[in-house]
Amino acid sequence: MLKNDPLANILYVDLSKKNFWVDNRQDLFEKYIGGTGVATQLLHEECPKGCDPLNAENPIIFAVGPMTALFPLASKTVAMFKSPHTGNLGESHCGGRSAIAIRMAGYGAIVIKGSSDTPLYLAIHGNRVYFRDASSLWGISAFTVGRIIRENEHGAGLRTIMRIGEAGEKLVSYSCVTTETYRHFGRLGLGAVFGSKKLKAVVVSGKRSLPISNIKQYRKVYDEIYQAAVTSPAMKKYHDLGTAENILPLNELGGLPTRNLKETRFEGASEISGEKFAEHYLGRRIACTHCPVGCIHIAALREPYEDEAYFYKTSMFSYDYEPIYALGSMLGGSDTKGILKLMDQVETVGLDVMSTGVILAWATEAQERGIISGKETKGIKFNWGDYNAYINAVRLIIEQPNEFYKTLAHGVEHAASRYGGEDYALSFGGNEMPGYHTGPGAHIGVLVGARHSHLDNAGYSADQKSFLAKKQNSPEELAESLLSEERWRQILSSLVVCFFARGIYKPDIVLKALKSAGFDLAIEDLNRIGEEIHKEKYRFKIREGFSLDNLRLPKRIFETPSPLGKLDEKFIRETIEYVKKTLSTVGV
User: Fold this and answer.
1) How far is the C-alpha of 411 from the C-alpha of 401, rounded, in Å?
2) How far is CA 526 from CA 85, 118, 297, 379, 511, in A?
3) Which residues 6+ apart lie within 8 Å of 544 measured at CB?
4) In angstroms, rounded to a whole number, what is the distance separating the alpha carbons of residues 95 and 179?
5) Helices 440-448 and 569-585 meet at what angle, rounded to 10?
6) Domains of the chain, first to last
7) What pLDDT is stored for residue 302 in this prediction?
8) What CA–CA distances, in Å, run from 433 to 93, 166, 461?
């Protein structure tokens, strides 16, 4: 890397002592590039073995990459922490303005340690760090906090504001961190880690120039990436309808989880489709900083005030496939206004939308089967598609008035272990399922993925290829496909490239772009680094008690047919064994 690149600077902040310092860690960035690679190493360094995720010792690590602020679509920030939701590796990615703000402030990573006695928020403006009192902000929604901070901190147009809502304050294990209103560090409970540290928000801003190795070559590579981004059919899809476009195709294939995966086709799919949202509710499109695509779709819901004739309020919500699946088909609901109102409640309190939908779906079926009653639910009768009931339940998950709602605040795995219904408690590695029942690859990918996310290795894509080829891979072939994809994604997330742009950032483009940032690498180097980062993640996971031998497979996934037919548990177990065997050969 270039010696005068501020990317090598890591800002350390100690909330307990209210101090901060900067270390130059060029060694880490040269070895692991940035983003996920560097954050994983910092987690090894800063998180003690066996640390309680809600203990002051659990660090919050934000990391960006060498291409951030230099090239389009390199606009993600990686957050790394020990997850209070799974008790293991916590990793979440977020777009918006956060990555550019951290890079422009002069850092490649920020490490937040310790815990404050009283609520505060951090204001990081370049080389200055302020510990602001947030006592008056505690208990306030993430939306309102963002507005208040914008009025009090400079850096308009340059800053990022990462903040939590009530869910994070109440330590709900799947609470999220909201940034720029419509983007989130969603999965695995970063919001609860913020809350445990009495950290309400982190503001970052800065302004600077960045070094490059060759201006002529840089412009050439930049133009190549930009033109690919604005002319690619795949990127046009993300701009026009976004991932919500997936609702109808998945429904037609029979891969859309419906009513807690009792079914995979939803009779109301057309009412919650991307096309329907675009036609009736799309208010605007926005983009992450330094992205020419604009894939963030904002729905506008216009409603009359109850007590004022002829007066209306308009609420704005970001939507895409995962929230629509989680709060729509998974809950058996096709009322788009109901989905948006529930989405508003989830966003206001600061919960992960996927986990929330899956948990409410389990609760609905559990009540349907009689293992919970009105006594546990405080009189709420869960019925598929009843959005008033679900909105009230979200409020109670935050208030936690009894043991049932305290249990729901720890996720579906925990709830099922307490009340029963494990067979239809849809979590994988402790994390609630994403919106794909496309075949074995989707579920295996989430089970064995380092952070138990569908974005780890896109197992649903392997299923799609098998469906089109009308041929299922062998367990060994599927395992190798998932591992190969996941290792390459370690490179993309170390560059902090948006995964939507993975078709643009192929190895040859990555190498040319990295050269402009001072990294002279070959494809063999990228493959080696990707494998090493993946190995380091598993080293942390195993250190913290993870085992491929103890993965729970919900019985429901074998009961409900997928586009590739009914899943075979033996096949899935054999594939996991191949993953285990492969990892052991590289020293995990």
Assistant:
1) 16
2) 31, 44, 34, 56, 9
3) 49, 50, 82, 87, 88, 89
4) 8
5) 40
6) 6-205 (3.60.9.10), 241-419 (1.10.569.10), 438-503+522-585 (1.10.599.10)
7) 87
8) 17, 24, 16
- Do residues 21 and 124 make contact, with C-beta atoms less than 8 angstroms apart? no
Q: What is the pLDDT of residue 272?
A: 98
Number of other residues whose CB lies within 10 A of the CB of residue 170: 21
Low-confidence ranges of the chain (pLDDT < 70): none
30-71 per-position pLDDT tens digit: 999 999 999 999 999 999 999 999 999 999 999 999 999 999
398 to each of 169, 175, 359, 530, how far by Cα in Å? Answer: 9, 10, 14, 39
Distance CA 74, CA 495 (A): 7
Helix (H) or strand (E) holding 282: strand 282-286
Instruction: Please return the burial class of 114, using the count of CB atoms within 10 Å of its CB with bins 0-12, 13-18 and 19+.
Output: middle
Query: Is residue 155 within 8 Å of 125, Cβ to Cβ?
Result: yes
Torsion sign over Cα 523, 524, 527, 532: negative
- Which 3-state string (H, E, C) describes 385-438? CCHHHHHHHHHHHHHCCCHHHHHHCCCHHHHHHHHCCHHHCCEECCEECCCCCC
The dihedral formed by the CA atoms of 140, 146, 148 and 149, expressed in degrees to the nearest 10:
120
Reported as a single tens digit per residue, the pLDDT across 290-321 is 999 999 999 999 888 877 777 888 889 899 99
Integer Cα distance of 584 and 44 in angstroms: 20
Signed CA dihedral, 201, 453, 529, 42: sign only:
positive
Q: β-strands 199-205, 120-125: how paired?
A: parallel
Residues 102/204, Cβ–Cβ less than 8 Å: yes
Exposure of 308 by Cβ count < 10 A (0-12 exposed, 13-18 middle, 19+ buried)? exposed
| Exposed e or buried b per residue across 509-535, where buried means at least 16 C-beta atoms within 10 angstroms of its C-beta | bbbebbbbbbbebeeeebeebbbbbbb
CB crowding 206-228: b at 16 or more within 10 Å, else e:
beeebebeeeeebeebbeebeeb
Cα angle at 152 between 149 and 155, to 5 degrees?
85
d(CA 170, CA 192): 7
Q: Which of 427, 432, 488, 430 is nearest to 458 (CA)?
A: 488
Rounded CA-CA distance 577/557 in Å is: 19
CA–CA separation, 380 vs 87, rounded Å?
A: 31
